[in-house]
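Pilot study result, target chain (499 residues):
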Amino acid sequence: MNIQTQKTAAYQKRYDALKQTRIPWMRTWKELATYLAPTRGIFESETPNNAKRIDHKTLLDSSASLAVGVLGAGLMSGLTSPSRSWFDVTLCPRGLKKLPGASAWLLEVKKALESAFAKSNLYCVLQTMYEEIAVFGTAAFLVEEDPQGGIFCRPFTAGEYVLDIDEKGRVNTFGREFFMTATQLQKHFEGARFSPQILQEIKQGNSASFHKVMHLILPNEQADEQCLDFTCFAYKSVYFLEDGTLLREGGYHEFPVVAVRWETKNTSESYGRGPGWKVLGDVKMLQKMQKTKLVALDKNTNPPVMVSAHVQGEVNLLPGGITRCNSLSEAAVKPAYQVQPDLTALEQTMQQVRDTIRSHFFADVFVMLSSQEVPNMTAAEVAERRQEKMLLLGPVFERLKTELLDPLVERTYFILLRQGMLPPAPEILNGLELHVDYTSTIAQAQRSAALEPLAQGLELAAQITQADPSVAWQVDYQKAFREGLESLGVDGILLKEEA
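Predicted structure:
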């Protein structure tokens, strides 16, 4: 066994171990895909030309799928809307932003990041990732360097990849498997030593047979920041085939996979659980009730019948049909029993279940205006009610900030830096730490909660000042004003520099 075969065997063993750890999760993912996201998930090593079949006999009510779509769209518009700025680049601590040239440089960096996001397929990927994490509790996509400049994102679905974590519970290992033809292998992995079978397929131009390719990204034990060779990068990247062929070895400066978990039970779990896990029982119950209602309606409009012995020939149940019968004393055809279902009570119960499902997916938060119970609310009351509901997304925002937004911005920043697409930093800023502030709708809702005590404090100060004007100097109204505007998400560019 040569060195290459030994290395591939070690990688295969590592990948198989990760797949073994994933098995208990796969059972639930399959059910979640069936009832909530029938077009998502890859669980049977599906090849590219094998379309996934949707079981419409099981999925009779699409309310849960609609709720998933609402949550995905709500997170997309509330966290990373492509139509508005959703982050700011600043320095840590923020006071350093006053350094000469700092504000202008930070603004250029922000514009470069926004341009890279807009030119890439990031926003298309994020939409699917939000729905993926809502259903399965885990979502992952790969952020690659685009040879044309900028970034390129490669999304994945449940069952297609494996994850592992470090001692702090952070995802640091990623593996996946996909299929390629022999011709595609030759094109993408030039210089690889293929088996005689694949070489024969390449010679024949066979495009019907697929070969399973494994891709593994894991920490590099020989990492060295001073070394410029890929073998010394922080993370190792390897492609290999089931037959032991090592296709490519490479590396990444930073972990290229953005892996997000909705919530985890502890720091030893590689995968997360999302709202889909909590409503799976409700969704199954809703499908059962929908089936019961449809059967009741069917029996009510087309009931089972009893046919008299005097009927001659076939019974014609079509509209206007004629059935011949020798007896006039009894009906030729009559219902076997009367079906009188209480559809109103059934529909009310179903609606209660739908409301529960929608609440778990925060649908009532994102479509609050269209489902408002009090139609005569003022604009201020609507804004206050919306802010209160947005606060419910606080834990979700913090999780997505840590595992999605921060890694995404950081990875993109370093890619652009290596590509020379960022403006040179002023010398005075060398060695200073950058910080990202999020200014999306959901982020602003979390920060605007600080406005209430600020407003109450200023109101109290105004009342006391009327009784004793000498205490007015203790309140810095200019700083309070700036703090309030920043909490509302007003761009710092619009504020004058403090004297």
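One observation from the pilot: Residues 3-277 form one domain. A full batch analysis is planned for the follow-on phase.
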